[in-house]
Amino acid sequence: MQDDDILIQKIINGDQEAFSYIIDTYNKLLWVIVGGILNNIGTTQDIEECISDVFIDVWKKPKAFIKQKGTLKNFLAVIAKSKALDRYRVLSKRKIVEINEAIKSSDDDLLDYVIDKDMYAALYEAVNSLTEPNKEIIIRRYFFEEKTSYIAEKTSIPVKEVENRLYQSKLKLRNILTGKEIFNNE
Question: At what angle do helices 72-104 and 4-12 cross, to 10 degrees?
Fold first, then answer.
């Protein structure tokens, strides 16, 4: 294992072997970090591109590493997290745009997504009638296909409560959509 300062100095001098060493040493760590952020919304390719961007940053700007602020491992982890969160924001917006485009597409294409426009409108209204955080939980689970454990982490709600809220919200949506809405608290 080489000293971080020596590795960075070698990269500043254009040493590709030192750069390869960094990639080999820290690639798995970056997969864990980036994959943990993008696994519910991105593809494997998105994760790979994000990790590549981290290594490209190190190759292009090795002087950004300052040993007094931490280790090279921590430096790479911070860059990876930042890039993954940026990519997550972009992918989230793209997913919303895809849903909106699907809704606005022709009737034939729309039928592939929803049985008919009225049903979609009713579903949209029903979901919007839910109170927070139930509305967010339903959208995250069924529109963005996020796992309940991930939703629990992001909303700071225990997993069991997320599962209970999903169940109760589905019952409420079913009642609304079948015209049997029961007026009670969510």
Answer: 70
Amino acid at 99: I
Q: Alpha-carbon distance 185 to 90, whole Å?
A: 35
d(CA 94, CA 96): 5
Question: Which region, left, alpha or beta, applies to residue 47 given φ > 0 means left and ψ of -120 to 50 means alpha?
Answer: alpha
Give per-residue pLDDT as tens, 60-70: 888 888 777 78
What distance lies between CA 46 and its chain's CA centroid?
A: 11
Q: Are 36 and 147 in contact (CB under 8 A)?
A: no
145 conformational bin, left if phi > 0, alpha if psi -120 to 50, beta if neither: left
Cα 71–75–81 angle (5° rounding)? 140
What is the Cα–Cα distance from 36 to 88, expressed in whole angstroms?
Answer: 11
DSSP state, residue 143: I
Query: What is the residue type of 104?
Result: K
SS3 153: helix
What radius of gyration do the chain's Cα atoms show? 23
pTM of the model: 0.49
3 state DSSP class of 43: coil
The candidate with the shortest Cα–Cα distance to 166, out of 123, 137, 136, 128, is 137
70, 24 in Cβ contact below 8 A? no
pLDDT at 109 over 90: no
